[in-house]
Amino acid sequence: MKQLDPDLFYEFYSAWKEAPSKFSKGEMMRKAASAFGLSEDAIRRRFEKYNIGSELAVVTGEKKGKRKSNLNSERMDLRETEAKIIAEIVYSNLSGKEPKPISMKLALRRARNSGQIKLPWTESTANRWLNRLGLGRHEMASDEASRTWREPYSNSTHMVDASVAERYYLNPRGKVERRWFLDDKDEETAMLKDSLIKVWIYALTDVYSKVFFLWAYGGKAITPGAKNRGENTVDYLDFLKRAWLPKNDSRNPFEGVPEYVYSDRGSGLKGLKNAFTRLGEIIFKTHTPGRPKAKGPVERRIGVYKKIIEPAIDGKKFADLNELNDFLTLYTIHENQISGRFDLWLAGTKDKPVRRITEQNFYDATVTFDKRVVNNYGCIEYRNHSYGVALDLVGQDVILFRDRDGNLVAEDKLGNLYICNPDGARSISQHTGFQTQSSDTWLKTDRMRLRDEIREGAKKQRKIFTIDDLFPKSELENLRYFPANAVPVETPATMAPSEFTDVESAWSYIERRLLIYRSEMPVELFEAVQSRLDSSLTLKGSITNQEIYELLNILNNIDFESNDSKESTE
Fold first, then answer.
1. Alpha helical stretches, state H, 411-473
2. Contact, 370 vs 380, CB < 8 A?
3. Fold of 157-362
4. How many other C-beta atoms are found inside a 10 Å radius of the C-beta of residue 517?
5. Which H or E run contains 59?
6. pTM above 0.85, yes or no
7. Each residue's pLDDT tens digit, 123-168
8. Contact, 377 vs 387, CB < 8 A?
9. pLDDT digit string, tens, across residues 400-423
10. Residue 216 gets which letter from DSSP?
11. Largest CA distance in the chain
C-alpha cells in the first residue's frame, strides 16, 4: 500500500466529507487522486475506509492494519491447543548430539495419524501459529537469560572442573613439552607420532570470594582401553585433598570442605559421591548437560589460564609436572592476593567458620573399604563378629565403612545404606514361644513389602487372566485376505482307487501313470481304450481298479515314441 501524507489526506477527506453536492465530492476526489498519484477508485476506498472508523495511520499506509480472524473464540482456542500439540511433536526429538527438530511435514503427519489434531493444518499455518505463540525454532533454541552466582559466606559452594592445557604436553619420559598446534588434526597427528600425553588442569573456585585453586595432572590412561587419562576419580581425589587440606605455604589461607560441590556430570566426580557424604555431609550438585556457563566462575578461571596465562608464559620451559605445579601455586597465590580474594574469603569465615579436615579425615572418608557377602542369615562377618544387615540382601556383596558416629554401615550395589546390627542373626526358641528375637531391629524394608504386594497381586492376575487378553478375537473380526495366486500341483499316482465312477477320472489316472496324454496316443489305440472303458462303465456302472491295471500293463509295453516316428515318416 502506497504511503500518503496523513495531514494532507485528512484535509482532502474533510473537504470531501463536507462537500454540498455529488459533483463537489467528485471534484474533490479527483484533486486528491491527482495529488497522491492514485486512481479515483483507490482514493474512494480509502475515504470510505476512514469514514467507517479505521485508523488514519492505517488508511494512509503508515502502519499495517491487523486482519480480523474469521475464527470464532472456540475455534481459536482449539487452534491454540492443537498448535501446542504440534509444537510438542516438532521438538520431541531434541536429544543426542546436535539435536534437530522434526520437520513440520512429518510432525503434522504424526499428529493426524495419532488422532491428536482434528482441524485442517498446512505447514505454513502451523509455522505461523508456532511463531505467534513464541514456539518458533529460533525462540526455542534461544538461551534463557543467565543468572549470577551469590553465596552468603565462604565455603558455601565450591565449583569444580577440569580441562586440557593448550600448549603443554607430557612426553613418554614424563617431561613437559611445549607445542602449539593450529588445529585438532595437527594435534592428533603429533600426539600419535611423538607419543605425547595431554596435561589436564583441574580448577576449584569458591563462589562467595572467587578464590581459586589450580593443579596439573598427566600420565597414561587409567581405564583399560582408553586413549587419554581424562577426568578421573583418582586425580579428583588428590586434587580435592590438596585444595581442602590446610596448606604448608602460609601465603595461602584457603582450606576447609564446602557444603555443596557443583560441577558437571563427569564420571570422575560421580565416584566420589559417597566419599562426599562421609566427609562432612557434602552435597554434590550437577548442572544441565551442554551448559558449561552454568558454572561460570570456575569456567572463567580455566579460560583465563588457557587463553591468557599460557600464551604469556609460552617461552617458559618446565622440566616436569612438579615444576608446572610450582608455577600454578605461585600464580594462584599471586592472583588471589592482589585481587583481594583471600581477604574476602577470610572475612567470610567470620560469619561461619570453615570446616577443617585432616589427613586422617580424608583417609577415613576415601579409603577403599572392606567387602563382605551377606550370608544366609542376613549377616556379615567382620572382625570375628556377626552383624545383622538386612533380610533381603542374602548372597549380595556389600561395602563396609564407619560413619561419623562410629557405626558400621553396609552399602549395597544400589547405594542403599544399612546400619549393621551387632546383635547378629535372628533366633527362635521354644522357651519364647517360637517368637523371633530382635524382630524390632529386623524390620522389612519398603522393597520387601512391595515385593510381597506384587506377589499377592500376581495371584489375582493369574485368576483373572484369559487367553483373549493376549490374543483378542476382536482384532481378527474384520481381518480378511484374498486368496493367493496359486498353480495346482499334480503328483504321479501310485495306488488306484477301488473303482472309478466315470471315464474321465479313469483316463486321468492312466495319463499320470504313463506320463503321457491321450492326445499323444495313436488314434486306433485311443479308440480301443476308450471303447473298453465305456463298455465297463455301461455294464457294471463303474470301472474297477483291476481293469485299469490290466490296461496299464498292456500300454506299458507299447513304444509310443517309435509309433510317432513311423506316423511322421508316412
1. 446-464, 467-470
2. no
3. Nucleotidyltransferase; domain 5 (3.30.420)
4. 9
5. helix 56-59
6. no
7. 999 999 888 888 888 877 766 666 778 889 999 999 999 998 888 8
8. no
9. 877 766 688 888 888 788 888 888
10. E
11. 133
